[in-house]
Design brief:
This is Antibiotic biosynthesis monooxygenase. The protein has 204 residues and is an alpha+beta fold. The protein is built from 5 helices and 8 strands; from the N terminus they run βαββαββαββααβ. It has an 8-stranded antiparallel β-barrel with strand order 1-3-2-8-5-7-6-4, surrounded by 4 helices. Strand 2 and strand 3 (49-56) form a beta hairpin.
Length: 204
């Protein structure tokens, strides 16, 4: 599968209305596009950050949907967004949650690496990091998204609630330290969000 992420920052006071528009109108528009497989919507109300991920069955669906929806996406974000960054990714490892409650939490880790080490990263994550994450209380699901050409990746992990998210920090740091050394990657940033929507359907 493939993923398009949109990361927007702006005035926290304007975040809620835009998040509501994306979770309703934006989600409806996405669902009408061929190849759509799901959506994630995450917010940081304190700092004024919004992250949207849309999931697609193949690259063709990813590109076509962007052409169809780019203008409407900008319109939906406009009341809030002072800055917007959009990226396309390959979903290299996906372990979606079975279900999430209303207080779920999300951690995003951005990574950088030599593009030649992409397969090394994917194998290390699947064989070493993922089993370690699954042993952490409250862990609900995770995805590894990669950009092979640019040598970038992001790891998005879901937790059952924000207390579990906070409690997991030490255990996750230990998993991350070991895996990043083995995969030869650099951690560029770590962020945490509240989950508004998280629904991905694997292709049949």
């Amino acid at each position: 599968m493939y993923v398009r992420t949109t990361y927007a920052t702006g005035d926290p006071a304007r975040l809620d209305s835009v998040a509501e528009a994306i979770s309703t109108e934006g989600r409806r528009l996405l669902s009408e596009e061929p190849g759509y497989r799901g959506m994630g919507l995450f917010v940081d109300r304190e700092l004024g950050k919004l992250l949207v991920g849309s999931w697609w069955e193949d690259e063709e669906s990813l590109r076509a949907s962007d052409e169809h929806l780019r203008e409407r996406r900008a319109e939906l974000l406009a009341p809030f967004a002072g800055t917007v960054a959009t990226d396309n990714w390959e979903a290299a490892v996906v372990s979606p949650p079975e279900s999430l409650g209303p207080r779920a939490g999300f951690r995003l880790v951005r990574l950088e690496f030599d593009p030649a080490d992409t397969d090394r990263l994917v194998e290390t994550f699947r064989e070493a990091a993922l089993p370690g994450l699954r042993r952490i209380p409250g862990f609900a699901g995770v995805s590894l998204l990669v950009d092979r050409a640019k040598g970038r990746a992001s790891v998005g992990a879901l937790y059952t609630d924000r207390e579990a998210l906070a409690a997991s920090r030490g255990a996750v740091a230990a998993v991350r330290e070991k895996a990043t050394a083995q995969a030869r990657v650099i951690t560029r940033s770590i962020e945490e969000f509240e989950v508004l929507v998280a629904r991905v359907v694997r292709p049949s």
